[in-house]
Amino acid sequence: MEKLKEFVKRNQNKILLVLLVVIILLQVLLRIEYGFEKAYLHIDEGYSYGLMNYDKIDIMDNEDFYNTWHKSEYYKDYLSISSKEAMDLTPVYENQKNDVHPPFYYLLLRIASSFTIGSFSKWTGIVLNIVIFILTSIFIYLIANRIFKSKIYAVFMVLVNGFTLASIDTTIFIRMYALNALNLLIIAYLHIKNTNKGKLSCKELAIMSIAIIIGSLTHYYYLVFLFILFIMYLIKFIKQKNTKNILRYVSMIIISAIISLAIFPYSFVHMFMGYRGTGTISSLTNINQMWNSFRTYCNILCDNVFNGILLFMVLVSVAVVVYHFIKNKKLSIKFENKEFWLMFIPSVIYFTMVALVSPYQELRYIMPVCPLLVIGGFYLLKVLLEKVFSKKNTYYILSAIFVVMLILPSIIKLDIPFYYLYKDKKEIVTKIEQEQDKPILYIFNKEQNRFLDDLYLFTISDQSYIMDKEEFSKEKLKEIFTNINFKNGFFVIINEGLEHETYLKEISETLNVTGYEHIQRMNACDIYQME
Prior knowledge:
The protein is mainly alpha-helical.
């Protein structure tokens, strides 16, 4: 036993490195498993593929989109690149210019899609996110090692974060949020790493600048985090009366901003004149809406980021503080770790701002800051517990909390986890796959345009027809079904905002269909099977 302890002590760094690699590999395998389970695409995931590839933002803008029979290839073309398009990166830039997001993530997705030319695959985006997850785990380790001053805790935080519901959903959701999470970790680490430097070198500033340019070209919320870091760094240098670092650092930020705007000048328009930017500003005037949104995000934080145990962690923290006060007749708990605050304060402000102004109350908007909040939450609890327990027992308690995090979602049966797997859509996808020879008629209401929420089904069906509601008539129905074989039945999809029974009745009478059955409710429509 003594020899074993001596061996472990002598080779601790190598053992921890092997353990870190094993943990990340296991978490990657878990994400691959969930990748297989992913049954559907969110509307924004459809946009992720279309915006990096198509010659326009929406497939609905095609002149032949409505009132024409299409095969599955028509819709797959929106989601994939052909051999002729492989070398044309124009859509990556032009579509983002006309949309509301910067282009860097779409460039990476476009590069990843070059490995699946001529076909669409969810794995293009998932594999890209898995690569990003691996890099994210490495920076979680680097930051946690700086914060906890312990490689064991650094490995532990990689373990904890990789098994949170939010982390898994971030990988499965084919959008820029995983990349933004990595960008926040990188810029936080670079600031933490250089926080005690008497002089910032040109190399360090150049690396920071590259990270800032990439981050600002990935997602605009990144700038919120960066701005708080900038203010904190500036205050630190002012207190130190370090004029050289102030000039170097501010110059680096200005140069980075100029380069970023030179690459994508439309960022300014998006943030201050686009509908998302003005919508964010206008939401700040509605106090009740802001409060309700913040409460919703707190629940999301508890359920998804901490797997349902955040309230328990808070109660444990309060109990420790009360016990410490009763025992010592005063509060002597201090958090003097400046590197921790440099990471945690921007994270909390980012979370708060997003919770107050985001257009929807969904996990995806706080995904980028989730790893930092997990590190911060466990570090705060560790510091508090060590005021009552030994360091060894504290580690055991935190390990027990992690075990509870793993099993609690299945015990309390949370309804929220793995939202982006779309398991509730698996049945309809399977049905369309099995009966793909049956035509699909979509009665479309342009006022409820969420077609990309339904796009995936049309990439499966052999033939489908999108009918503008203004074109609907018995004569038109007879005309379009004249040469279509529907003796084995067909599917009808009807948008929201329309009187479904009226349309179904007219379709049944016109095409001599004996009956119909409602088979699936979607986000903005209902699907019926006509027999």
